[in-house]
């Protein structure tokens, strides 16, 4: 992950603030951090956790190991620790055919706004 790759990904996918994301209906929040990071800090309530390294396997509609809850017809909002992985993941989802993808940046931004968090 280079700064150039992240900047390119951010240019391809719109950003969204935590407040804007919290008001969306029929949305899938996708946490692309590693499970140990999620365990340490929690996640957006109801979010799926698929580490960025596993995204191709679990998000590709043609993959037999696809995560069914990651619906390409719904709005998907990605986030990570700081924002780089979220932008890269969002760009990859667009490449896989997901129609409405946005990146929210880091989980810390969501949590600091007092928005719903799920522990464990």
Automatic annotation (TrEMBL):
<dbReference type="InterPro" id="IPR050229">
    <property type="entry name" value="GlpE_sulfurtransferase"/>
</dbReference>
<dbReference type="Pfam" id="PF00581">
    <property type="entry name" value="Rhodanese"/>
</dbReference>
<feature type="domain" description="Rhodanese">
    <location>
        <begin position="23"/>
        <end position="119"/>
    </location>
</feature>
<dbReference type="InterPro" id="IPR001763">
    <property type="entry name" value="Rhodanese-like_dom"/>
</dbReference>
<protein>
    <submittedName>
        <fullName>Rhodanese-like domain protein</fullName>
    </submittedName>
</protein>
<dbReference type="InterPro" id="IPR036873">
    <property type="entry name" value="Rhodanese-like_dom_sf"/>
</dbReference>
């Amino acid at each position: 992950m280079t700064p150039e790759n992240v900047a390119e990904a951010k240019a391809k996918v719109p950003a969204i603030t935590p407040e804007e994301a919290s008001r969306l209906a029929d949305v899938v929040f996708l946490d692309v951090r590693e499970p140990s990071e999620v365990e340490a800090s929690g996640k957006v309530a109801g979010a799926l956790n698929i580490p960025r390294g596993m995204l191709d396997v679990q998000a590709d509609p043609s993959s037999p190991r696809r995560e069914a809850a990651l619906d390409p017809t719904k709005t998907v909002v990605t986030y990570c620790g700081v924002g780089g992985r979220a932008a890269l993941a969002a760009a990859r989802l667009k490449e896989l055919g997901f129609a409405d993808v946005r990146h929210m940046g880091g989980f810390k931004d969501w949590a600091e706004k007092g928005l719903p968090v799920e522990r464990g």
